[in-house]
Design brief:
CATH topology of the largest domain: Rossmann fold
Structural class: alpha/beta
Strand order of the largest sheet: 3-2-1-4-5-7-6-8-9
Distance between the termini: 64 Å
Number of strands: 9
Strand content: 5-15%
Shape: globular
Number of helices: 17
Order of helices and strands: HHHHHHHHEHHEHEEHEHHEEEHEHH
Largest sheet: 9 strands, mixed
Length: 485
């Protein structure tokens, strides 16, 4: 059975279980099971390769001990083992010895994890299918990694869980333009399921990693933090699927909970790649970690203030921000002024409202900046939905090739040869200051049209009239029934 069919059959089994409600819980359940199988496969390989290697997981709790036998424990006995033995003991693993980092990874994954399945018999069926996957087989793991990314993509339809996923076309474009290299410290302070990390790892392996030392240099300089339990668990599993044996650099924490002033020179990084949460509010007290002129409950604003502080001189960043961050006033104005004074915000790529559908239908922007020199001018590039398509959607998502026009305009030789086009324009710092740091500059070559498309208006009018008629018919039927009584 192919990896894709295996995952589909597992999902179908889980749908029969009364304890698993929706895609987010289904993926969470799948994730901790995959995690334990991957860790066990890695452990068995490391035990052969390293004389003194010991698994961070006690023998009785290892996948091979309780899960690999297809005729092993099932039903109520399996449920009891998982709920009473497995979860409590993995949550309390001591971090010591030569596998301390792996212990911390296991413990952090199970910290807030849950076993949602209620049927031990259905769980045994799922376990048996997972046991057939060999995660030490590079080809099989690669195929599974692709399926896993598709599962993360599917989270977009899982309500609030969709906030964890940034379209891969966007992450790949941002990573390509930042061009990270082994040895550079790369941070994603709100890493979600790890999309920017996997893209950066793939980018460096394809272009720059030639030796074992290069790989080690890349891995030791990765930094990531995720506040929420589910995306943290998904991210750690994602790292394992990408061949990273010890993803202890992915911390389960809130980056904003640490006082702004406590971030010093040793915390500075070369690269920030991230899509910080926007539209949300931080819990009470978090804003007090920041200087008074930056205090707000808006998560994206607090992150932007922190990004500027965390970058080394000469460091570079690519981040996603909503339109509101460009035109907002108050704290947002002070943040933009601070950004343009401390950094060279050289490029803003404006994206259409539908890029992050269905869980966000607001305009978003990709901001590229470098720390150390003030901004003198900003280049804007407007990305449009492909011709013949009204908007991006679940069935018609953004694809990497749709950003090829921006790549060609940007130029491989650097930013010095840019020219203004129908999609690209530049704005001077003087013009920005004259607008009180409002960065919401629209394409000057587009003449505003206050009139909607007549054909679309007609379609909407017909639909409204049909709804009105249906309601009128319902009311007439109710009235007639009342009179007959």
């Amino acid at each position: 059975m192919s990896v894709r069919n295996t995952v589909k059959s597992i999902q179908n089994i889980m749908r029969q279980d009364v304890g698993v409600d929706g895609d987010a819980q289904r993926l969470s359940q799948l994730c901790w099971m995959f995690f334990l199988k991957i860790i066990d496969d890695q452990d068995q390989q490391l035990e052969v390769m390293q004389d003194n290697y010991r698994s961070p997981i006690p023998k009785a709790l290892q996948w091979r001990a309780w899960a690999s036998d297809p005729e092993g424990i099932t039903g109520e006995a399996l449920q009891t083992f998982i709920n009473i033995e497995l979860f409590p003991k993995l949550k309390a693993l001591p971090a010591s010895g030569n596998s301390a980092n792996r212990c911390r990874v296991v413990r952090s994954v199970f910290e807030d994890a849950h076993n949602y399945m209620k049927s031990g018999h259905l769980m045994r069926q799922v376990i048996n299918k997972i046991s057939r996957v060999d995660f030490n087989d590079l080809t099989e793991r690669k195929h599974f990694g692709s399926i896993y990314e598709q599962l993360l993509n599917d989270l977009q339809s899982a309500g609030n869980a969709g906030e964890y996923y940034t379209p891969r076309a966007v992450t790949a474009f941002m990573v390509d333009r930042i061009d990270p290299k082994p040895g550079e410290i790369l941070l994603d302070p709100s890493c979600g399921t790890g999309g920017f990390l996997t893209c950066a790892i793939r980018h460096m392996r394809d272009r720059y990693v030639k030796t074992v030392e290069d790989e080690q240099s890349m891995l030791t300089n990765l930094r990531a933090v995720e506040k929420k339990q589910l995306p943290h668990m998904l991210c750690v599993t994602n790292m394992l699927l990408h061949g990273i044996e010890e993803p202890s650099f992915v911390r389960h924490d809130n980056t904003l909970a640490r006082p702004y002033i406590s971030y010093g020179p040793t915390d500075r990084v070369d690269i920030i790649l991230t899509n910080p949460p926007f539209g949300g509010k931080e819990e009470d007290g978090i804003e007090s970690n920041f200087p008074s002129h930056f205090r707000t409950k808006e998560t994206a604003d607090l992150f932007l203030a922190l990004f500027i502080r965390l970058l080394k001189p000469g460091g570079r960043a690519a981040i996603v921000l909503p339109d509101g961050s460009l035109f907002g006033e108050g704290v947002k104005t002070r943040l933009k002024e601070h950004l343009l004074e401390e950094c060279n915000l050289h490029t803003v790529v404006r994206l259409p409202n539908s890029v992050f559908k269905p869980y966000a239908s607001i305009g978003t922007n990709l901001l590229f900046f470098e720390k150390g020199t003030p901004t003198e001018e900003i280049w804007f590039y407007e990305h449009r939905v492909p011709e013949g398509q009204q908007a991006y959607s679940m069935t018609k998502p953004m694809k990497t090739e749709y950003l090829q026009g921006c790549l060609e305009w940007w130029g491989e030789a650097g930013r010095g040869n840019r020219v203004e086009t129908d999609l690209a324009w530049k704005v001077s710092i003087d013009d920005i200051k004259a607008r009180n740091y409002n960065l919401d500059f629209k394409n000057p070559r587009i003449i505003p049209n206050d009139h909607a498309d007549p054909e679309q208006l007609l379609i909407e009018l017909v639909a409204t009239e049909q709804k009105t008629k249906a309601i009128r018919d319902q009311l007439r039927a109710i009235l007639e029934e009342a009179l007959l009584r």
